[in-house]
Amino acid sequence: MIRESTLHPDSAAFRETVPAGEYFLKVVKAGETLRILDLEGNQAADTLFYNAHNPAERYSAVDTIREQGNVYLTAGSKLMSSENNVMLEITADTCGRHDTLGGACAAESNTTRYALEKKCMHACRDSWLVAVTKHEELGMSKRDITHNINFFMNVPVTPEGGLTFADGISDAGKYVELRAVMDVLVMISNCPQLNNPCNAYNPTPIEVLVWN
Ligand SMILES: [Zn+2]
Fold it and tell me: Which top-rank group of organisms is this from (predicted)?
């Protein structure tokens, strides 16, 4: 569902550009609004959310899908935690659909999906592992890297029940906006994927904005 935001970028309290292949880590407080902006189009922002005070409680794709009765995420979607609490709500969306089924790219999936020689290519899972390794204060490790959302990624479910990684439906300047319902730690991998049509084989930067 397309729903435009009423917030102006000039009034944002925080703005940061995240190059493809980099991670982004920030606590967004309850009541604050987070925007992820697809600067050049057809990019994938692979995102994990945690309760900022207890990372054992984290975004749960299965709870979110069950509660909303829809496999796709868009404006109006409430993102549920593993404790079945609402973590964030999508309040604006100019892309219209985001994936939470496809998972993040990893050395393993690059190998099985594309080719054995792709094993050593940088992947989203690597970016998250770098993030938790460099930030020991979070007390997180490999075991905390679980379900994610692929913002801007188009992964339709086929009539046979399969998944297809299809051409992206996002475009330059499209964004998704989320209002935090609890204090959340946001961990984004701006996807470095070179083998996937979702980002037109061309990883590009995103911008992250936060309004108090
Ligand atoms: Zn990726």
Answer: Bacteria
